[in-house]
TrEMBL record:
Subunit structure: The complex is composed of six subunits: RnfA, RnfB, RnfC, RnfD, RnfE and RnfG.
4Fe-4S ferredoxin-type domain: residues covered: 102-131, 132-161
GO cellular component terms, A-Z: plasma membrane
Species for this entry: Inmirania thermothiophila
Residues binding [4Fe-4S] cluster 3, per UniProt: C121, C141, C144, C147
Family in the record: Belongs to the 4Fe4S bacterial-type ferredoxin family. RnfB subfamily.
Protein name listed in UniProt: Ion-translocating oxidoreductase complex subunit B
Requisite cofactors: [4Fe-4S] cluster
NCBIfam families xref list: PRK05113.1, rnfB
Cofactor note as given: Binds 3 [4Fe-4S] clusters.
InterPro entries, alphabetized: 4Fe-4S_dom, 4Fe4S_Fe-S-bd, 4Fe4S_Fe_S_CS, Elect_transpt_cplx_RnfB/RsxB, RnfB/RsxB_Proteobac, RnfB_subfamily
UniProt keyword terms in alphabetical order: 4Fe-4S, Cell inner membrane, Cell membrane, Electron transport, Iron, Iron-sulfur, Membrane, Metal-binding, Repeat, Translocase, Transport
Amino acid sequence: MIVAVASLTVLALGFGLLLGYADLRFRVEGDPVADQVDGLLPQTQCGQCGYPGCRPYAEAVAAGEAEINLCIPGGEPVMRAIADLLGREPKPVEEAEEKGPEVAVIDEQNCIGCTKCILVCPVDAIVGATKQMHTVIRAECTGCEKCVPACPVECIRMEPVDEGLAGWRWPRPAGIGEAA
């Protein structure tokens, strides 16, 4: 028994040292500017910017290959934060709509269980099995809307998220804050 414990301990220490050496020897340094830009993005992985996720978009912005105003979910605040970080001139977010956060809802009576929505969901917020009813985990859904066109029976719709009292704000009167 003691021999088995001792041999497993020696193996664990050996593999630990080997992994530590591999980490130091084969370390890949990332771009610190891309890391900072990625930290500012909302991490919805929605692809509305034209890139497959937030990290590739952050790398393109840091390299100067992409504009700073392409993040639709982040909107104006994220664009301004990226402009401040990179020292660029702010640009208007062109395609942003003035709508609140939304979440996907599946009409479970009409769902045929084709799994096409599950395959396109970037955050795995849709659960279900083949030829079984699917549903959306509301807390995980980022509202990217990728599942809506993927559904062949059109049983997915987007609904606004009820933020409750925590998200309530006084409505801004027309004309205030627009000239900033």
